[in-house]
Every structure is written in structure tokens, then in C-alpha cells.
Amino acid sequence: MHPSSGSILMQKSTFITLAVLTVLVLFLFGCTNNSPSGLATASAINTDHQLKIGIQTQAVSTLVMVADQEGFFKNEGLNVELANFSAGKYALQALLANQVDFAVVGDVPIVLAAMNGNELYVIGQPIKSSNENKVIALKDSNTISAKEYFSAKKRKISTTNGATAELFTIEFLDYYGIDQNQVELVYQKPEDMVAALSSRSVDAISIFEPYPYIAEKKMSGAVIGFDAPQDIYHPLYSIVAQKQLIDENPQTAIKLLKALKKAEDFVKKNPEEAQLLVAKESGFALDEVNSQWNKYVIELDLSDRLIANWNEVANWAIKTNKTKSSIVPDFNKIIRKDLFEEAMAGAS
After folding, report:
1. Which residue has the higher pLDDT, 10 or 164?
2. Has residue 102 got a pLDDT over 70?
3. Is the peptide bond before 210 cis (omega within 30 degrees of 0)?
4. Which residues contact 71 (CB under 8 A, 6 or more apart)?
5. What is the crossing angle of helices 305-319 and 164-175, to 10°?
6. How far apart are CA 23 and CA 14, in angstroms?
7. By C-alpha distance, which of 188, 198, 208 is closest to 61?
8. Is the pLDDT of residue 2 over 60?
């Protein structure tokens, strides 16, 4: 053997050993950060993973706003970013497009999404009840009733397409015996409705607060308001989650619900401060937030009333061809009562 052969073999052996160690380190690093393994899943629910929540920027989302601004999400180990929308249907659209992880949404968009085959879960309600919708109309002579106003001539009513306000509008007309052929529905975004009424391009708006209040404030003396009858549809709101996220990380939902429960306690003890927080997050003036405050019972819930509302919505959607489906689905399959109950049992 050549005198330097042993040295060469030793160098080769050292090189191979280092190469193997390098590969192992890279493999382990890759598993920890990129693999869909249990280790990666566990890291996905710590504070390094940002969750996005799409909210409707009204008092209906109070618990989410308070939990964010008061640090209750952080206390549960969640890193949350809020995405603001003028209506829940837009928040749900963002969720279905994988732009947000959770969303605060009313009944109608949830039902339409489920009936169209979209996968989602409902993990709770950010409010217990609501009486949020109102019809504001341009004054016309001495009209004092909704029946008189909408029967006098054909009217244009601005509302939102495929959302809770549209269903409310239909039931409002039915309640007062107003022929739907007497009205023309004009579909607009909530934030555009007051301007449409002010410019007289529509005769009335039918929408949730605070837009009716804003219209009355801006057009004082020129409009008349028709409150929502108690016997018709009143929307409920839900916290909707991406199905895959919850299937892989159910603890994320539980932690989020615990944070919202803490926010509920805060709101009950500090209602005025909570209204200030909502005004800060939503961009509405404090008086506009105050105007809608008593329209909601702001408590975390997950009631059987959801199913009753959703069945009503589904039947309406089928009757009016809002969906291609002709079957009312079993909505119990998308409600995660197990997660809600676990969160409430562990809430402090």
C-alpha cells in the first residue's frame, strides 16, 4: 500500500460522515417546518402562526373586536389579525377563498354556501339574538304606515343580494301584505345605500344598523323609518371556520372560543368601554355604535335556533332559486357543539 493510502481513506471516511450528518440535519429541519406531520401541525397553533378572522364591522362582531384589542386571543396563545368587511357575506367569501381562517357571518350566506357544496364548520355565535334590520324610506306626503307607503306606487328598495337583509326585506313586505310586484329590489353594498337614498336614486333602504341610523341622522326630516316587526325573520350570526383547519387543529377553535368568552365577561362589566373599542375598530362614530348596541344580545352562544333559522332560509332559497339545490341539508353536520362545549367547560 502506498504510504499515504491510510490518510486518504481516513479523509474519505470523514467526508462521508459529514455528508450523512448534513443530510440528516436538513431532513429533520424540513420535517419540523414544512412537513404535514404531527410535529408541524402542533407548531401551527402557537403564536408564530397567524390566524385571520373576517368580521362584519358592526356590533355583531363586538366579542371578536374586544378579544383582539384586550389581548384575550394572545392570552390563549393565538396570533390573530382582523380583516374588516361591511357585510358578513363578504367575510364568508374571503373564507371560502382561503383568505381568512374564521369569519363572522349571518344565516343566509352560510346556508347558501352549504347548499352549494362548500365545506365549513360553525363553532359558535358571537351574539345570542338580534333585531338589527330596519327600513328607511323617503317621506311621501303624509304616509305613516309601511302598507300605505309601498302600495301607493312602485318603489325601489336597496338591500343586499343573497344576505340576511334581503330575506328580512321579503318577510317585511309579506308581513304588511305588500305585493312584491309593487317593489323593485336594488342590490347594493351597505356602505353605498345611504348615498343612494340621499340622491333619491332609490325610495328606501332595508339594511342592518347603523346604516338606518346614519340615514336618519344625515337626512333628518326627509325620511321615515319602519321598524322590524317582532314576528318576522331576525338573523343570527355564527363564527364560521375552515373545515380543514379545525379537522387538523381543533384546539385552535377551542382557544378562540375561550378568548371570546373572556370578551363577553369584559363587555358585561364594561359596556361603555366596549363601545369605544368597537368604534375604534369599525371606524363608525361612537353615536353610530351606540345606536345599534341594544339591537343585539351580545353573548357567546350556540343554540338550536340556528337550525330553525337555517331551515327557513333553505326553504326560501329553494323557492326563490337562490340555489340549484332542491334539498334542505342536515345542518347539524356542520355545527361543532363538541368544540363549543369543551371550550365553555374550560373557560375561566
Report:
1. 164
2. yes
3. yes
4. none
5. 80
6. 14
7. 208
8. no
Of 74, 132, 102, whose CA–CA distance to 292 is shortest?
A: 132
Mean per-residue pLDDT, 52-79? 97
Contacts 24+ apart (CB under 8 A), 326-334: 329/114, 329/115, 331/111, 331/114, 331/306, 331/307, 332/307, 334/114, 334/120, 334/121, 334/122
Q: Do the first three CATH levels of 44-129+236-346 and 133-227 match, i.e. the same topology? A: yes
**Read out DSSP for 170-195?**
HHHHHHTT--GGGEEEEE--HHHHHH
CA distance linking residue 130 with residue 281, whole number of Å = 21
Please answer whether residues 256 and 102 qualify as being in contact, where contact means their C-beta atoms are separated by less than 8 angstroms.
yes
Given CATH 3.40.190.10, say whether it is the number of domain 133-227. Answer: yes
Mean pLDDT for 27-42 is 32
- For the chain, first and last CA: distance in Å? 77
> Positive or negative CA dihedral for 29, 31, 36, 39?
negative
Multiple choice CATH, 44-129+236-346, 3.40.1280.10, 3.40.50.720, 3.40.190.10, 1.20.1530.20? 3.40.190.10
For residue 155, the SS3 value is strand
Domain spans of the chain? 10-42, 44-129+236-346, 133-227
Cα 251 from chain centroid (whole Å): 20
Q: Has residue 39 got a pLDDT over 70? A: no
Neighbours of 322 (CB within 10 A): 20
Give the sheet arrangement for strand 204-208, strand by strand: 183-187, 155-159, 204-208, 133-138, 223-227
Going through the chain in order, the beta strands assigned E by DSSP cover: 50-56, 79-85, 102-106, 121-124, 129-130, 133-138, 155-159, 183-187, 204-208, 223-227, 237-241, 296-297
Query: What does the pLDDT read at residue 35?
Result: 29
